Amino acid sequence: MVPSEERPIFVATHPRSCSTAFERVFMTREKDLCCLHEPFGDAFYYGPERLSSRYEGDHNDAIDDRENSGFHEATYNSVLEEIERSGKEEKRVFIKDMACYLVPPSDHPTFDKAVLAPSVTPSATYNGNGVSIPVKNPTVLPLSILKRFQFAFLIRNPRKAVPSYYRCCIPPLNEMTGFKYFMPNEAGYRELRVLFEYLLKEKVIKHPSLQAANGETNGEHSVYNNVCVIDADDLLDNPKGIIEKFCEMTGLEFDEKMLEWGAHEGCENFDKWKGFHEDAIGSSGLRPRTKKKFRTREEEMQEWLEKYGEEAAAVIDRTADENMEDYEFLRRFRVVV
C-alpha cells in the first residue's frame, strides 16, 4: 500500500452535506493539491456502466441527456485513469465524491449482489460464459483499487440534508440541476455506511475501539486512528479546529489562510453540476456560524409543509427518518476537537 501521505485523499460523502464548502477549503491549496470534484458521478449517471436510473432508457430524452452531458462514454476505469493522470502533476490528489456512486442503488439489478464494474473487473472474476462472478465487495471497484486512496468521510444530519436535496429536484432550481424529480434512494447514507463498514472490515481504515475489541492492538495502549469522519455541524461551528484536525489526520500541512478565498474563484469544475453548488460558489470563506438554529420536528414539518406541500413534506420526513440510523452509526466515529 502506498504511504498515506502520498495516496490521493478521498472524501466520501452524501448529497447536501456541505461538502462543496469543505472542498473549497482545499481548492486554495492549488500549489500542492489537485482537487477533483465528484469524478465518479460521470460513470454513475451517464456512462455505459451507469448505475443510476435517473437517465436510464432508450427514449430520446434519456439519450439526449446522457449525450449532452459530455460523459456518455465515461466508465469507472476512465475515471480512475483521470485520477491517475492528475497524480502525475507532482501534486497530491484530493477527491470529493459521493459514496453512492460506488455502491449500486436500491433500484439497480446488482443491488446487494456486489458485481464489479466491467471496465475494472479482472479477467479472473469472469466465468466461462463471460458473466462476472460476484465477489464479497459491496462496491463496483476492486479492493486493490480502494486501497490506493486515503479515505475520509463527511456526514450531515438527514433532517437538514434531505430537504436541501429535495429543493434541488423541483422548480425552479431543477431547471439548473437537470434533476427533474426527487429520488429518495439518492440520499446516500446507506451507501456511505456500506462503504465505511467494508473498508473497516478490510482494514483499509482502522479505529482504536474496534481494534481493541478484536484484540489487534499487539499490547499497545494507543493505536493510530485513521478513521476520519467529519460532521457538518461540527465543521460549521468550528471550521478552523475541524480543518486543522483533518489536515493532521490526512498528512496535510494546515494553514489558516485555507479558510478564506475569493467568491467564484476556481469554480470551473462545478459547472457539470450546475445549481447544486451556488451557495459554495458565491462564498468567500468558511467561518464559524454565529447562531446555531435548533428546530423541533414539528417546526421542521411546518416549514416543509409551507414550502413544498403536504405530500412532499411527508416524503422528506420519511426519507430523513429512513436514513437516520445510518447517520447515527457514522456519527459515532466523528472527529471531536
From TrEMBL:
Gene3D superfamilies: P-loop containing nucleotide triphosphate hydrolases. SUPFAM superfamilies: P-loop containing nucleoside triphosphate hydrolases (SSF52540). Signal peptide: none annotated. Pfam families: Sulfotransfer_5 (PF19798). PANTHER family: SULFOTRANSFERASE DOMAIN-CONTAINING PROTEIN (PTHR48419). This is Sulfotransferase domain-containing protein. It comes from Orbilia oligospora (Nematode-trapping fungus).
